[in-house]
User: Fold this.
Amino acid sequence: EDGVAPALETTFGPIPDTDSDGRVAFVATSRVNQQGWLSYASLSDYRPVSECPASNEGDWAYLATPQANSPSFARTSLMQVLPHSLAHDFTHVIQNRAVIAGGTRADPWIEEGQATLGEEVFAHAIANPARTARQNYGSAVMFSQVGSVQPYSMVPGLSLYYGFQGSTQPKVVGAPEQCTWLQPSEGGTPIGPCDASAAMSGAWAFLRWLTDHFGAAVGGDGAFHQALIDGSGPGFDRVATLTGLPIETLLARFGAALYVDDRITLSDGLLGFPSWDLFDLDQSVFQQGQLMPRNRGYQSFSEDISVRGGSTAYLRLSGPGRPATALEFTGAAGGALNPDLRVWVVRLD
Assistant:
């Protein structure tokens, strides 16, 4: 797909050309179908044959083939969805340049979050080139179709992170606080009770939010993401270095933004989500897919909540009168709160 590479290279940098032939070789094979995938690229192809006998020692991508007896791989639908899948996997190919140059790979949440953001960047290019980031698009764009493809599926995919598992199914117990996006897995075992793809949308959302707020300060969105790829150390360290803010501050603002974006008039710009109207998303999905805090009034209550790393538990206090209220947060059995946990409070009116 001719349009994939140009759409991605502005944001993530050039696709490597390690074998100096100016091309990426495509191999269509049923082995991809057997994995249940549409496409993938392998880091092994950048290793010498002496280290990895299966290596092609160059720039390769592998594609699923049409299967007449499979709706998932029918020729017409496959040709429509493959460019979007390639946008994801070409982003992984670009990320490989750090390893090719002798550097270190970024954390999986950065790799998968960027690859999903690559799908969003390509979706803008193919659906409407006039679309750009930070335009606060609502449900009309989130749920739009290009052929048989919903190119912005990463946005409503946040509903999976919030606990959606079907219009006739109950909301996942423990979402989102047990549904971390720090360990995304493509087609693998989910971390926590939510669908495995929930982590992909969660990681995308954090990177989308970071890009919207800090991209310009470091020279543009492309400079931001290329620095994430070419950096060193753990992912949170890379982010803190780029933004100049502690990761605890960033995670607290991001967690709050997922709920308060476009719901209230903001006094703190970091509590917003400039590219997408998340309140409109919340109003456009089934109740099971909404971000629903635990609602409590201004009276005595207790909550026992376990929060997985990279996640957030939401509690909303409301009611008439608003008397003076004290909140106490403790660890198990009333002990000290885990030092890795952070508590934040946002006034909604």
Summary: The first helix runs from residue 4 to 12. The chain has twelve helices and five strands. The mean pLDDT is 92.
